[in-house]
Design a protein that fits this description.
Blueprint lengths: L1 H35 L3 H4 L2 E2 L2 E2 L10 E4 L2 E4 L16 H10 L14 H4 L4 H12 L35 H11 L3 H4 L19 E4 L2 E4 L15 H10 L14 H4 L4 H12 L10
Antiparallel strand pairs: 1-2, 3-4, 5-6
Bound molecules: heme C (HEC) (2 copies).
Keywords: Heme, Iron, Metal-binding, Signal
Protein name: C-type cytochrome
InterPro entries: Cyt_c-like_dom, Cyt_c-like_dom_sf, Cytochrome_c-type_DH
Length: about 280
């Protein structure tokens, strides 16, 4: 009898710990998917360009580029048209390494250069959050790429996150997950990132509402040298410049708007640690 109640008490305690772990994962997963990582910028279902919250991340929008025609897939747990039949491990591998359960490679513009850095803990949280969303049926057309896609690197075993006490490393990790440099690093004529000019801006972004050039995020005078943290936060979270002017809506402001103060501070600390480069790097 005593042993029984001990076992029952243990099971209860473990159950509570599990439930707490799951709640923490759900919260972290939501913060990453809907906030820092802005998955909905591409994967949200839209009707006439407007995001429909009830349809969640059911995909469907075309993301055309000069060299390919991509469609954002349905990543809700619908078994037929979404990721409902994938195991947690399969879903995690798709997000971090760009390999589907059938072995095929997932194409751009999903930013796998950045996502290979996702830590094991954050990947688990993202998967838990996606699985907890309502299944939405939405059949999305297949993307078309001119060439066979190659894997983004060797298989990953274990990925650790940054030491939370190291602000610059934490900021670097967040800037990676938010794929800031996907837009803020200039590219060559073939569209390849000029890594030696990381963060220098000057990439041309063509959008239906007009063209814009990404800005310089390095601590150069043409970049963030004289910016306060409040100005940086307003640019990221409200899309407003220090002069109070609205930027073009290129950045996923709705998502970045939820980035916590401590994470904003860490991102800025990292950007300030970059070598100062002139606008565009040259
Ligand atoms: C910049 C746009 C973009 C962002 C941001 C993005 N994705 Fe994707 N994602 C895509 C596109 C496009 C594809 C399909 C590429 C293809 O057809 O090969 C894709 C494919 C996927 C797939 C494979 C689905 C399938 O059925 O093949 C998963 C899972 C996925 N994304 C999850 C995520 C998650 C989770 C996030 C945020 C952490 C995210 N994506 C952020 C554009 C994006
Ligand atoms: C999808 C592309 C894209 C992504 C992703 C993106 N940016 Fe931007 N960002 C831009 C563009 C384009 C502008 C300039 C818009 C304009 O000129 O109206 C800009 C402007 C800015 C500015 C204003 C700088 C100035 O000199 O006025 C800051 C700060 C900034 N981005 C930081 C970030 C950070 C930090 C991230 C990641 C968390 C990020 N951006 C992600 C495209 C992007």
């Amino acid at each position: 009898m005593t042993r029984m109640s001990l076992a029952a008490a243990l099971a209860f305690a473990c159950g509570t710990a599990l439930a707490q772990g799951k709640a923490a994962d759900l919260e972290r997963g939501k913060y990453l998917v809907e906030g820092v990582m802005a998955c909905g910028h591409c994967h949200a279902a839209r009707v006439n360009g407007e995001r429909k919250p009830a349809l969640g991340l059911a995909g469907g929008i075309a993301l055309p580029e000069p060299t390919y025609r991509a469609f954002a897939p349905n990543i809700t747990p619908d078994p037929e048209t979404g990721i409902g039949k994938w195991s947690d491990a399969e879903l995690g591998r798709a997000i971090r390494e760009g390999i589907r359960p059938d072995g095929s490679v997932i194409g751009p513009p999903m930013p796998f250069d950045s996502y290979r850095a996702i830590s094991d803990d954050d990947l688990r949280a993202i998967v838990v959050y996606l699985r907890a969303q309502p299944a939405v049926r939405n059949d999305v057309p297949k993307s078309v790429y001119p060439e066979q896609l190659k894997p983004y690197g060797p298989p990953l075993a274990k990925v650790s996150g940054p030491d939370p006490r190291d602000r610059i490393a934490t900021g670097k990790y967040l800037v990676e997950l938010a794929h800031c440099m996907g837009c803020h690093t200039p590219r060559d004529e073939k569209g390849m990132a000029l890594k030696q000019f990381t963060g220098a801006g000057g990439q041309l972004l063509k959008r239906p509402y007009g063209d814009s050039l990404s800005r310089n995020l390095t601590p150069h005078e043409s970049g963030l040298r004289d910016w306060t943290q409040a100005q940086f936060a307003a640019a990221l979270r409200e899309n407003v410049s220090p002069q109070g002017i609205k930027y073009k809506p290129v950045m996923p402001t709705a998502a970045y708007g939820t980035i916590a103060d401590a994470d904003i501070a860490a991102m800025l600390a990292y950007l300030r640690s970059l070598p100062p480069l002139p606008f565009g790097g040259r």
